[in-house]
Amino acid sequence: MNYYEEKGDFLKYLRKTMRIMRLSLFLIVISTAMAFSANSYSQNTKLSLDLNKATVKEVLKAIEDQSEYLFFYQKKHVDLNRQVTLHVTEQEVETILNQLFAGTDNIYVINDRQIVIGVAPRRELEKQAVRLNVNMKPVIDQPQQKEITGKVTDTDRLPLPGVSVIVKGTTIGTVTNADGEFSLNIPLNAETLQFSFVGMKTQEIPIEGKTVILVILEEETIGLEEVVAIGYGVQNKRDVVGSISKVGSEDIAGKQIVSFEQALQGQAAGVSVTQGTGMAGSGSVVRIRGMASINASGDPLYVVDGIPISQDMFGLNATTWGMNPNPLSSINPNDIESIEVLKDAAASGIYGSRGSNGVIIITTKKAKGTQLEINFSTKHGLSTPANNPNVVGTENWMQMYQEAWENDGNTGVPQNLPGNLTWEHAKLNNTDWWKEITHVGYKQEYNLSASFGVTEKLKAYISGSYNNNESYIKRNAFNRYNGKINLLYNPTPKLTLTASTMLANTKTDLVGDPWSGGTGAAMGTALPIYPIRNEDGTYFKGAGNDANPVMVSDLMDVFNDETRTINSLSINYVPIKKLSFSVSGAIDYLKFINDGFQDKYLRSVDGDYIWKSQTNIFNYNYSAIGTYNTSIEENEIVFMLGNEMQYSKTTGERNEYDYDPESTNPENLIDYGIQEWRFLSFFGRLNYKYKDRYIAQVSLRFDGSSRFGANNKFGTFPTFALGWIASEEKFIKEIISEDVLSFLKFKASYGYTGNSNIPNYEHLGTYVTPTNNSSYYNNMPVRYPSRYSNPDLKWEITKNLDLAVEAQFWGGRVAAELAYFLKRSEDVFINVNISQTTGFRDQWQNIAKIRNEGLEFNITTRNFVGNSLRDFRWTTKFNISTIDNKITDLGGLTSEEIGGGANDTRILLGYPIGTMRMVRFSRIDTEDGRPIYLDREGNETKTYIFAGENGYAMPAGKLIPDFTGGITNTFEYKGFSLSALFIFSYGAKLYDAAAKRQMTLMSNWNFRTDGFDRWQKPGDDAKYPRLTLDGNNWGASEQWFNTSMWIYDASYIRLKNLSFSYDIPSKFLKKTHLSSARISVTGTNLLTFTNFPGIDPEVARDFNDARDRNMSPNATYLTIPQEKIYSLDLNISF
Amino acid sequence: MKNNKSIILLIIIGLLLNACEDILEINPSSSEEVLEANALKTESDIEELLNSAYDALSGIYGGTFQRSVDLLGDDMTFKPGVTSNLVNIYKRFSTVYFTDHDTYTNSYVSIMRVNTVLENIDNISIPGDKKKELMAECFFIRAICHFALVRLYSQPYNYTSDNLHKGIVLKTNTKIELLARNTVEEVYKQIESDLKTAENDLPATNSDFARATKWAAKAFLAQLYFQKHDYDNAFTMSNDVVSNSGLQLDPSHYQRFLSTSDTIDSEIYFPSSEALFKLVSTPGRNKTVGGYFDEYKADESNIPNIRIDPDLYYDVISANSQDKRLHLWYKIFNANQDNEYIGCTKFNKSFKNIPLAYITEQKFIRAESALLKQSVNKTIAIEDLNDFRERAFGDESRNVSSDISEENLLIAIHKEKRLELICEGFRTQDLKRRGSGGESGLLVRGVSWDYPGMVLQITASEANELFELNEEPQ
Fold first, then answer.
1. Nearest to A451 by CA among A368, A332, A364, A378
2. Which of A761, A981, B221, B412 is most buried (CB neighbours < 10 A)?
3. Is the whole model's pTM more than 0.90, yes or no?
4. Which of residues 173-212 of B touch A (CB under 8 A)?
């Protein structure tokens, strides 16, 4: 017999024990499956004991003496000196052990004759009587044998004790010892050895004359033992009643991403992530379970290691410069252990007035143990556009200009060309502006991290990284330096101190706004007939600055520079086992600078122009949480009570001046003022479980905020949830064999969450007392009312209903979850355009109601599992979610009172948020080539009347997709791995606001080849109207009017990520001191399947306004395409 | 028990914190923002608020009102190819999106500010006379804002015989509420009543006519009566102003918009001294009014969007090359080329004052009213007309003689007013007045004076169940 403690090597066995603890949860699920197996040793072996006040150690020894059982355990986990009295007659060993360990933390696993005793990792498991019987007969000695020896380890190369080793097809076998070693006499004709262990995939190894066999067993994870962050605590996935999607570090590491939220794309049902443009460092638009806000930000709450961090890009006082700035990009994705997305009330309700948009919990990496582990990874990539714009060259452009000229009734050579060029002069140039502003961008990234123990009690995780991420746009790059330290100190077993600090600097080199001489000009106002430079070498300015993106790029230098540090300290105290307290404090500081230089050549005055805008955000957070857990017989209770306060202060200023190198430059400071807000919250959660299968959870949060009006200072957010693990029920097992249905859980929850993403002070009546000189009138200072008070202002409230079922089949070969949700949002903020007769323009009021309803489905199938790591394996992960979004109440407000988003996206009662309301286009008149519209009744007309009672503007398309999702297929074979992620979006419409300028109406804009399909002569059945130089020919008095002609189907399927990697086998690594090495090639956005004729259907347009981000994220306007990236990654560990 | 104590402790801590709801009261800490409750404590606070109402007037009468009115009329053309709401106004097809939002919004901003003064002035200790004066200034501002609104967004007085047609919303308090439009009759009544109070209580001089005076109130009453065809009262008021205010016609037209003295060819021009009420720029503080007139600005640096109708220029304005106004107020660009245009240079100066009521304009009211009132006073009409002509031509060569027929005299006054006050927002109002007064055959750039497009549409956000928008032309 082998007692672990006799080895005395604590560290060596700590990891084993940890694994056993984890495995024990797994066993809960599969044990019952095995329970019906007949003829097991344990069922056939009856024991009798008669012991008075014997120690546990003595009891175990008595059992071993009476039977062939062997006990494995770690001394620190089993109180061997505890005295018990046992009187049993002819009982199975389980009965005895259940009595022996009643009321303790201990659980046990019976693996034929081996019994491993461990500790339940969580209280819920306390009562578990776990057993496993392997169908195997006693070993019978046979003649003509040979000896075979070997060792079994896990994937971390740690020895596995207690592994069954049998000769396939026989009853001959043994188990591995504490060092994972075995020795077995087998018949000469034996062909295959079978290795099995609970929680591990069974492996079969051909003997083929070998006498020494080394085996690596791989864990058979089905996820239920996973620990999930639930907000102010953790829980086993099995017991979770909320709707939570988890993305682990392995899903983050394999992607060429800059910011972690990109890793969520296509990974989690109900989580919509639209990456920003191809600009380096561009932020994404993240929406969880639809959109429930109009004017308030729809962004989720981000919580990093318990700290709600500053993430509002609108608070940065930055113009967008063609991309959404991204405060989240300071965080190095490589430092993230896991991301949990809390979606329903049962999950996000604990965040009260900030939970409505969902909560994204980021858990960063911590020290794993005291052993030194070093990881280094580097990525090198090349960036090109996912798709190139299809603008035409000089010949085509001039040809079409001529055609338009003639269509308009003119003759001869067109006059008044844009840029003041003559027809002959224009012919001489043919500038490919897109080519001029793009190149192949080079991306490089280096990460180094170490996890180690300074002393037994002090453990550390340290990491540093550098990222230099060029996009395919010249002079556009994202740079990041990031360092992180996590310290874990256990002075006593009852006390844990955690200190964490992160310091990062990101710098994004920007190019001009797309519409003002930046990237977009290369698809719009920069015509091929323009030269880059004049004959004298100066830049061509004949068509204005906006029409020479090369000049703007060269003569303007703009960058965002963000320095960020997130620091936290927390103390966790466990006075007694059932009770724990945790107090933590954090400071999250962000300094954001937008700095720019404009050469005087771009200006009408003589002198360069310089500006520097700085914004500082201090975000202080404090929380105190108490958790009490207990169990009374089959009732398990966890009770959590907490208090949290957050305070944020934003300051900033801008300095801008005409730069004169020969004099002291004047300061022209504009103070952004101070923005402060505070949340004070009290919350509690009660989790109750009965018989390990009936679960109930209640949570309640009181949130007070400085943003709420005097009459509504505190909000109450209750939630209630039920869960039923039906697969535990006997009658279910009788209906479906557990071999087929391994796990089945039903969940239902209902509760309130809120959204308080509104500007500060909106409830207060205020006066402005401006002090700058030009605000004086007639030499007198002025003051005037700027806002009138709204003491009733409060949070948006969402009433969430969630029904879900989780199931696993064939021992986890198939795991699926189906959820239905209904979110009814009320008191939705509208910044109402109040009657202007009041002298005020607008006010934030709680008015609208929005309904989001949808289905989410995700499934993971292990199509081929093989027997070992080196066998062919194939796993498929698929998720899909539908969303039905509808505005159900606008409090009687008209669309006009609410105001529109960009490009006529609207808030319309009974329609989804951001419905495009336009005059509907019917067809092109085949006779004269003019567009025919539809009036309100649907009759064809050539008159264009937009608004008013007689206007023809009607709902013409929605930007929210019907469904979105992703599918990942991973193939593995002999250390090679191929993984492909496709994302898809169906049913969204996209308004291409640039198309109306790029096609058929010839102006000072370039033309797109898809506009070639135009009417040219009577009888033509064309997609677009006749070319003209005057929009009046199309029936409207304005040139640039919106019609549904420019609404396109934005459905697409995109190969978001394709990764091919190779794990270098350990035999090659032995000499190098490396414990693992992986090399991979990754492709991003390699393929796109879409009917969208523009550049890129995946659009998250940059907006300076939260409402526009809700209403028109995919009203594209020269939005530059996403990047196609090829990268080579190397990842090594010591 | 120990556990329970801990929980109780937590709850107590929570309750204690709960009691401190104060920490959730965060007020703006900007030095340029104060809470409503602290905003109006002293007389100077009230003065500052009133001053902000004057300031807001430049968002109405600083060019938006005038140019909108002129664009509807027959003096202007618009730069081809430009797309803006001004094009819609010029095409007499303003819509809820493409209209003059500024005049509408800013009028009510100014009105809200004076109503706030009126509602709060009793809470502050101010000497009785001073208080009366400040209140009178408020009535004055409120009146001229309502007056701008009703002229731009409603059909004119006499469009219907009882004047019960749609006017604009009269706002006489600061309540936040939806209101229906008042009738034109009600609006004119309210304006008259506000101006009458102002006339009574205002001083004869105030801040060099940058703030309201008795004479300013009278001048606007003259405009109001004139517009509602009440020529007797219009004559009385304008005659009072011209005769008794003590102000005289400026010697030169060039003075009208000056905010500081200017020298041309060693001759010094002082800012106008005939203004009864004006919006003022303060160059020393880099403060300008009248920026909305930049649409007319015609110099080498700026190609104007709004231009003088070439026919008008060649047939009428430049008919007499001796007219001093010709060189002062007009410039031809790209002469004799396809892209020739005539710019109005009246508003070229960056820092200008904008007179809203002044002797020149009052004399035109007096002259015309003298002919239209019950007992015609031809002498004074001729006298006023000749004053303008003598100033424009430098001598009496173009004066009319006393034997001119009344009919021709009226035509001459109309023409002279058009030339004298061009681009200042009077012409179209006069055409509407004449049309609604029954003048037959009157066309405004091809449409009738009461064509729906001659009235501006009101901004989209105003539409509600109480508020009826204007009719849009088909």
1. A368
2. B221
3. no
4. 174-179, 207, 210-211
